[in-house]
Amino acid sequence: MYGGALQVCFLTEGLAAHGVTSLLACSPGSAVGDEARRRGVAVAPLVMKGDADVGLVWRLRQLIRQWRPDVLHLHSRRGCDVWGTWAGRLAGVPVVLSRRVDNPEPAWWAQRKYRWPNRVVTISQGIRQVLLSEGVPAEQVICVPSAVDTQAYQPDPRAAAALRAEFALPDDALVIGMAAQFIERKGHRTLLQALPQVIAQHPSVRVLLFGQGPLLEPLRQQVAADALLRQHVSLPGFRADLMRWLPGLDVLAHPASMEGLGVALLQAAACGVPIVAGRAGGIPEIVVPGVTGELITPGDVPALAGHLQRLLHSAELRHRYGQAGRERVLTQFSIPAMVAGNLAVYRALVAS
C-alpha cells in the first residue's frame, strides 16, 4: 500500500459519498484490492503483466463491456498507462490517466503517449510542468493534488514518549525520521552523509529510517559497519502504523532527488512535524522554506546538515513550522478536495 494505492482507496471511497459507484480492477491478491473491499468498494481481478502485455487491451475491454462504466480512470503504470488507454478508446469510454511521478520521458514519446487519454491528471504542479515541458498540450493536463487523511494523521502530545519507548530510544533523544522506499532517488545516502555533522552538535540525536526496498540491506550494512552511525541510526523496516509514530518525531528528513509529491511528507506535515527535504518534483508544494520546513538542492550534504542542526536547536521553530505545515495540509491537501477535483474531471468528460 504505497502512496498511489492509498490515494485510489481514498478516491473510490470518497466518490461513493457523491453517489458515484466505482469498480476497482487490480491484480489478484493485491493489497489495494483488499483495502478497497474493506472500504466497501467493488473489486474485479485483472491480470497486469507489464509494458509488454498487449493482452491487457483485450482483458480490460472485456471488463468494460461487462460493467459499462461512464469513465475509465487509469492509475497503474504496469502497462495500464498505454494498453489501458487503448482498451478504453476502443470501447468508446472517456479515459483519464493519473501520473504520480516526475520522471522525465523523451518528448517524442510523451507527445504520443499522452495524446490518447482524454485527460491526464497529475498529483502535483511539478509533474504537470514536466509534461508541459515535454510538449503535452496544457489543456490535456489537469493538476489534482494527492490527499492525506488528516484524522488518522494529526498531532498527538503522547506520541513522543510512545515513539521513544517503542524503538528503545533515550527519553531525552531528539529524533529525526525518514519514511520512504529504500531506492536511490529518495536520498538516504545524503542523510547518512550529513549525520556526522549533525551528531557533532546534537549528540542526543537518533534517526529512524522507515521503509523497505532494494537499498535496505546495503544501507543496513553501511550503518552496522560505522561505529557512529550504528549508535544513532535504526532501520525498523516497513511499518503500517506510521500514524502512531510520525507525530513523535522532531523532524522529518526527505532529501529526495525526484519525487512526484510525497505522501509521507503530507502525512508528517499533517502530524505537525517540520520537514527538511529536497527541492524536487512536487515537494516545494508541501514544504515552504521558512514556513513549514526547509528545502535543499538534492545531494547538498552541508545544507541538509545545517537545516537539521538549526531545527534541532530550536523547539520553538519546530513547533512553528509544524503548525504551519498542518494548516497547509488542511487547506490544500484534504481528501474531499482531491475527490472533488477528480470528480470535476469526470463530469466535464461525460458532459462533453
Automatic annotation (TrEMBL):
Domain Glycosyl transferase family: 163-328
Matches recorded under InterPro entries: Glyco_trans_1, Glyco_trans_4-like_N, Glycosyltransferase_grp1
Glycosyltransferase subfamily 4-like N-terminal domain residues: 6-151
Pfam families xrefs: Glyco_transf_4, Glycos_transf_1
Keyword presence, Transmembrane helix: no
Keywords: Transferase
Superkingdom per UniProt: Bacteria
Any one Gene Ontology molecular-function term assigned to this protein's record: glycosyltransferase activity
Keyword Transferase: yes
Protein name, UniProt field: Glycosyl transferase
Organism name: Vitreoscilla filiformis
